[in-house]
Amino acid sequence: MGNSWEEIDLNDYESHMGLASVYQLQVMNQIMKEQFYTDPVKTMMILGIAGGNGLEHISRDDFETVYGVDVNQKYLDECQKRYPQLLGMLETICMD
Predict the structure, then answer these.
(1) Which residues, other chains included, contact 68 with Cβ-Cβ below 8 Å and sequence gap of 6+?
(2) Are 95 and 69 in contact (CB under 8 A)?
(3) What is residue 92's DSSP assignment?
(4) Sheet holding 90-94, edge to edge
(5) In a designed cystine with 25, which of 17, 60, 87, 91 is the match (CB 3.0 to 4.6 A)?
(6) Quick one: how far is CA 77 from the chain centroid?
(7) Pair 10, 31: CB distance under 8 Å
(8) What is the rounded distance in angstroms from the CA atom of residue 25 to the CA atom of residue 27?
(9) What is the domain partition of the chain in residue ranges?
(10) pLDDT reported for residue 2
């Protein structure tokens, strides 16, 4: 039996999370932005990265490697497509 997250389309997920009545996509983006720079680290891991919400705040000058983990390989593939500027530093890992 697979993980139910493997069946949820990324567009459906992000559309729901971005609704004004939910507003989680926007809040998570701000939280990610703040947490990326809380501690002076060069490597980080993001669990449940989905489509990469918040990765636009990553600076190549500040980080060497960012690991993005998710159970849905399609989410990870989209994450790589959305953030080509992170090529070579964004490592995606598909695992549950």
Answers:
(1) 45, 46, 49, 52, 55, 76, 79, 90, 91, 92, 93
(2) yes
(3) E
(4) 43-47, 65-70, 90-94
(5) 17
(6) 11
(7) no
(8) 6
(9) 4-94
(10) 82
Query: Residue 54 carries which side chain, given as an amino acid letter?
Result: G
Convert the pLDDT of each residue in 25-82 to its tens digit: 999 999 999 999 999 999 999 999 999 999 999 999 999 999 999 999 999 999 999 9
Quick one: fold of 4-94? Rossmann fold (3.40.50)
List residues bridging with 25 in a β-sheet: none
* Prediction pTM value: 0.90
Angstrom distances, CA of residue 65 to CA of 7, 13, 20, 22, 87: 29, 26, 33, 31, 10
Return d(Cα 15, Cα 13) in angstroms, integer. Answer: 6
Q: What integer pLDDT is reported at residue 26 of this predicted model?
A: 96
Helix, coil or strand: residue 95? coil
Cβ atoms of residues 59 and 35 within 8 Å = no
Residue 1's pLDDT is what? 62
